[in-house]
Design a protein that fits this description.
The protein has about 120 residues and is mainly alpha-helical. It has 2 domains: about 60 residues, lambda repressor-like DNA-binding domains (434 Repressor (Amino-terminal Domain), Orthogonal Bundle); about 40 residues, no CATH class. Helix content is about 70%, strand content about 5%. Strands 1-2 form a two-stranded antiparallel sheet. Strand 1 and strand 2 form a beta hairpin.
């Protein structure tokens, strides 16, 4: 997915006529982070990818339609980050307790680190 990401981010940014620095400011990240995304040296997490899509006015499906392989690592890492950072998270219409959020994050970590 890295090749798809780097080309899509760069071309969408250029289409809007904004610099890496301007995109970085809109996303509250460093310009070097944008550079690394565009060079394929780093992948944004799920939340950042969503914000990039919003700022650059591109559908998130664009990243996955062009790729033959779906990399679940960044999605699972994004979920873990979200569970750890958000005060309230709902699942099946109910707000999760801290213990349930911790349990879900723990299970996702087990899946990611299973070798």
């Amino acid at each position: 997915m890295k090749n798809v990401l780097k080309h899509t981010i760069k071309s969408a940014r250029k289409r809007l006529g904004i610099t890496q620095r301007e995109l970085a400011e809109k996303l509250s990240v460093s310009p070097s982070a944008i550079g690394m995304y565009e060079q394929g040296r780093r992948e944004p997490n799920c939340r950042m990818l969503s914000e990039i899509c919003s700022v650059l006015k591109i559908p998130s499906q664009e990243f996955f339609q062009k790729s033959n392989v779906f990399n679940a690592n960044s999605v699972l890492n994004g979920l873990i980050e979200y569970l750890n950072s958000e005060k309230e998270v709902a699942l099946n219409g109910e707000i999760l307790s801290k213990q349930k959020k911790d349990n879900i994050a723990y299970i996702l970590n087990l899946i990611l680190n299973d070798k």
